[in-house]
Specification:
The structure is a single chain. By secondary structure, this protein is an alpha/beta fold. It has two domains: 135 residues, D-Maltodextrin-Binding Protein, domain 2; 83 residues, D-Maltodextrin-Binding Protein, domain 2, CATH 3.40.190. It contains nine helices and 14 strands. Strands 8, 9, 10, 11, 12 and 13 form a six-stranded mixed β-sheet that branches. A five-stranded mixed β-sheet has the order 5-1-6-14-7. Strands 2-3-4 form a three-stranded antiparallel β-sheet. The chain binds arginine. Arginine (ARG) binds next to β2. The site of arginine has 15 residues, from β2.
């Protein structure tokens, strides 16, 4: 008698537990760092909307999974921790697929190819090749692939929570250069004509959506949305709308 009463209460208890975590079955929570236009940025008429290429992909991922998308904006270097603690369900943040990250999360199929580029003040002609990076003072986004890469060339690396702060540091003459992903760098350049973009021979990087380990169902659903969007032209339309 007692046992069956308890069992009967289980679904109710489960709902309460889920509600307690701020998560419900029909919501898919995506984590991002919205300082990375055109992939994710804060904009819209009132300047309080999170928009961008990744966000539009994430919306379709949620819709195909039959869920409502909830966006959590946080520091880039907090994303993997948030994912692995269950605070978010997946990461859509222009995150490069790397073996180090693959040790703690799973990535979707790659959805965008990028590379690192250098931004300097326009009058700085000291960087022609990768060799010229040795010993320079870099500004980067904390926890990014640029942050990791910079340390190969110098021990003078100042890391910021956003690309914007790194750019400010460069404009204020406090660092020699910013190492940043190609599209967001081009985006900052368009708004800061006093800067110059230098493309060097850096390797290609591939962005992927990240999910926690053992989340095969969500990973499959993300991959099938990507495949569908590539096949039906929706992916290309988003590239044209947001990127080029
Ligand atoms: N692609 C780089 C990385 O994975 C930088 C990504 C930064 N993304 C962002 N939304 N701020 O480390």
């Amino acid at each position: 008698m007692k046992k069956s009463t308890l069992l009967g209460a289980l679904p109710f208890v489960a709902t309460l537990l889920l509600a307690g975590c701020g998560k419900s079955q029909d919501v898919l929570v995506v984590g991002t760092n919205a300082s990375f236009a055109p992939f994710e940025y804060v904009g819209g008429p009132n300047g309080d909307e999170i928009k961008g290429f990744d966000i539009d992909l994430a919306k379709q991922i949620a819709e195909d999974a039959g869920k409502t998308l909830k966006i959590e904006n946080m520091n880039f270097d907090s994303l993997i921790v948030a994912l692995n603690s269950g605070k978010i369900d997946f990461i859509a943040s222009g995150m490069t697929i790397t073996p180090e990250r693959q040790a703690s999360v799973d990535f979707s199929e790659p959805y965008y190819e990028a590379t690192q580029v250098v931004l300097v003040n326009k009058n700085n002609n000291s960087i022609q090749s990768i060799d010229d990076l040795t010993g320079k003072h870099f500004a980067v986004q904390l926890g990014s692939t640029a942050d990791i890469m910079a340390k190969k060339y110098t021990d003078k690396v100042t890391a910021f929570n956003s690309g914007f702060e790194a750019i400010m540091e460069l404009k204020n003459g406090k660092v020699d250069l910013v190492l940043f992903d190609s599209e967001p760098a081009a985006n900052y350049l368009a708004k800061n004509p006093e800067l110059k973009l230098i493309s060097l021979d850096f390797p290609a990087e591939f962005y992927g959506f990240a999910v926690a380990k053992h989340q095969g169902e969500l990973l499959n659903s993300i991959n099938s949305t990507l495949a569908k969007m590539k096949a039906n032209g929706q992916y290309q339309a988003l590239v044209s709308a947001h990127i080029k």
